[in-house]
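Run log // design_07
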């Protein structure tokens, strides 16, 4: 029963990603008109020259309104540092696959110091940065607390995805946490202590 539910949720999530990909790549029709406060998170990083930014808004298959629900739902909760990230296109959708070194594990079957793969929707392609609700994908050197589940599908092997598409990703910058854009008040945190991790 649980396995069927997981297959159905994964199929729905992949359908959402493929449908959203059409919107990502149809950038002549969709361009972001919203400004996001990204004070210390610069989108034009290293060799990625961003000519334009395309932002897609939409509903997520599984949404969260509290840290408690996010904690209960995640298979893995960890503090990670991104070693490398690479964007690519799969069936008209831009994805980014990041190698993340696990610094500390709070839940799940991964070991500290291991490297895991994290798959995100969005990234850089042909001078365009694709984001979902203004949330940028990981870049090399970033640190974050992540709430993950194992990815099942054709895009990547042996990878994890962030719970709630972007809701389970809290970037760490200068000792403070940055909550994702567009999350419920219950997910707006500024410090590790607010995550309730032991």
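design_07 sequence
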């Amino acid at each position: 029963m649980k396995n069927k539910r997981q297959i159905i949720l994964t199929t729905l999530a992949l359908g959402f990603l493929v449908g959203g990909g059409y919107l990502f790549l149809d950038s002549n029709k969709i361009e972001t008109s919203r400004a996001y406060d990204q004070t210390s998170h610069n989108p034009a990083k290293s060799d990625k020259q961003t000519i334009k930014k395309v932002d897609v808004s939409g509903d997520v298959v599984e949404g969260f309104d509290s840290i408690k629900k996010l904690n209960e739902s995640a298979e893995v909760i960890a503090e990670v540092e991104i070693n490398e990230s690479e964007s690519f296109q799969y069936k008209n959708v831009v994805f980014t696959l990041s190698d993340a070194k696990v610094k500390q594990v709070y839940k799940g079957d991964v070991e500290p110091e291991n490297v895991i793969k994290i798959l995100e929707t969005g990234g850089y392609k042909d001078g365009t940065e694709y984001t979902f609700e203004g949330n940028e994908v990981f870049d090399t050197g970033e640190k974050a607390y992540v709430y993950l589940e194992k990815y099942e599908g054709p895009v990547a092997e042996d990878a994890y995805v962030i719970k709630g598409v972007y809701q389970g990703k809290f970037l760490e910058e200068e000792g403070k946490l940055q909550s994702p854009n567009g999350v419920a008040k219950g997910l707006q945190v500024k410090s590790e202590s607010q995550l309730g991790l032991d």
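Strands lie at 52-56, 76-90, 93-107, 115-121, 123-125, 128-132, 143-150, 159-162, 169-173, 176-178.
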